[in-house]
Amino acid sequence: MPGQRIFVAGASGFVGTCFLRAALAAGHEVDAVTRSKSHAEALRAQGVNAIVGDLLNSEGAWRKALRNADSVVHLAQPQTFGGHLTKARATQYSVLRFDMDRALFAAIDPARTRRIVYVAGTSYYGECGSEICDENAMPLPRGWGPYLAPAIEALPDYIARGLPIVAAFPGWVYGPGSWFAQYVLEPLRDGKPVYGLRGRARYTSPVHVEDCARAILHLTGKGEIGNRYFVVDDAPVPGERLAEIAANALGVTGHGRKLPFILLKLLVGRVIAESLAYESRLSNNRLKSTGFSFNFPTCEQGVPHAVRAWLQKNPAPMVE
Length: 320
Ligand SMILES: NC(=O)c1ccc[n+]([C@@H]2O[C@H](COP(=O)([O-])OP(=O)(O)OC[C@H]3O[C@@H](n4cnc5c(N)ncnc54)[C@H](OP(=O)(O)O)[C@@H]3O)[C@@H](O)[C@H]2O)c1
What we know:
Blueprint: E1 5-9, H1 14-25, E2 29-34, H2 37-45, E3 49-52, H3 62-67, E4 71-74, H4 87-106, E5 115-119, H5 145-153, H6 155-160, E6 165-170, E7 172-174, H7 178-189, E8 194-197, E9 203-204, E10 206-208, H8 209-222, E11 228-231, E12 237-238, H9 240-250, E13 256-259, H10 261-268, H11 270-275, H12 285-289, H13 299-313
Parallel strand pairs: 1-2, 1-4, 2-3, 4-5, 5-6, 6-11, 7-10, 8-13
Antiparallel strand pairs: 9-12
Bound molecules: NADP nicotinamide-adenine-dinucleotide phosphate (NAP).
């Protein structure tokens, strides 16, 4: 659906940056809210109508732009990665995320806006066992999942009140930033360990950040209102496979270190340790049934691309 007016919350973030590129390249007009003046300037330089504001502040010019949107894409979340992820920090995330959603949804005009793509996360589904699961699976939240749950479980109420919500559930979104840079690429570059969980390999369902952003844009036109879509590539892999491919692409070896859960928790915090401790083999059949196709159907194709993009932004010398 070309030529939409799309309101984006979270446009300056990891997925949002890619989303903007895809939306502007497809000829859409974009309004975006950001708390930061410097982010607003960077967004304006790309052709976005950026408004400085805060979703947690119910007043603000962003509400006017929101009411004129054909589609709304909600990618905003309180800060997640960086620093030690304690349970207290995750609990605060949960409360703020819920409040942010409430403020955003309250300001939308359902008579004007055709779709709201709400971006959640597959950690809400959590432990899926050894079978491939679809969106009808019973959620058993793990990692970030329990902290996303209050916001996700409020969505049916908003839909019942007439908001045209389509929910996207990305898996592990890898690319040249965010957690993938912090926990995998930077340690590999610096000759430091990439930590994993000792014991059997746990499968996860990854997606390249560019495909994730393209899928979210696709859902603004093709997502069925009230439905959920897993945004994951074709091939679940053992979680450590992403680091192995990245190490090969960087030309380094031997930096993986597997720890028992208790030590991992001490090192990276409970939320991240739990994120490595469950099986998540998810199907993208529903997303594909809407006509979406991936540029990077597997992480074997996508991770080397992400590493090259990261090296272009971070050309520091490698330590072997
Ligand atoms: N990254 C992943 O691996 C992953 C995996 C699964 C699901 N997801 C989901 O995908 C979505 C986007 O994730 P991400 O990694 O791209 O996020 P991110 O990089 O952490 O970016 C968060 C964004 O939220 C905005 N924001 C935060 N608080 C705000 C507030 N009070 N008012 C307005 N804007 C606010 C920030 O904008 P300013 O700082 O400019 O204000 C920033 O653009 C999230 O819902 C996340 O749960 C991500």
